[in-house]
What does this fold into?
Amino acid sequence: MALLTDDFDAVVASRRAVRAFLPTPISRKLISEIIDIARLAPSNSNTQPWSIHVLTGEPKQALSALLGIAHNDPSADPLVHLPDDLARKYRERQEKFGELFYGLHQIDKCDDAGRARVSGLNFDFFGAPVGLIFTIDSNLKKYSWLDYGLFLQTLMLTVRSRGLSTCPQVSFARFQSLIKDFLHLDDSQEIVCGMSLGYADENATVNSLRMPREMAQGFTHFMGFDK
It folds into this structure.
């Protein structure tokens, strides 16, 4: 079967982090179909280090309620997902994201309460009908986390090919203990991230956000080619 390059490129190009969803229900059958394709992602020595917890309805609402309370607790530790000595080029990209994202919400850089309110929307899965929590065995090394990234991207592209959208969310890693208790996970499991899944609300202003990307020649190094 010939690969449809243009179709695949269109799927990749159309994938984006969606932060406002329609409440349209998604069937278990469709989610299972998506996961059944994503499981074909490569992994080191075929270890397949992923585990997924798929929530909808009352369980999703219950988890969101608990996470919302935890998020609003001023004593909760912040999530440190980038180093303090972040290199300048990464810092500039991070700051540009903040400028564009919070600008859409008309929230000033110094408005900590406003930023906290918007970031709290993560824990309602941005209104998506389906929430996913991804876990990994905590004793695995960074190479298995690379495998996990390959799996997540495969899953997100599979979702997109079916006309749905996602938002991968590292914010959930902030509340490891709470989520582990809710999902009855053992101590060997670590939260990788969460993800919202559903149909994008194309009328939502936040979904108009398109982040700038560096051109390929800025980070690609060729050797041994004639041209």
Q: What stands out?
A: The chain has a mean pLDDT of 94. The CA atoms of residues 60 and 203 lie 24 Å apart. The radius of gyration is 19 Å.
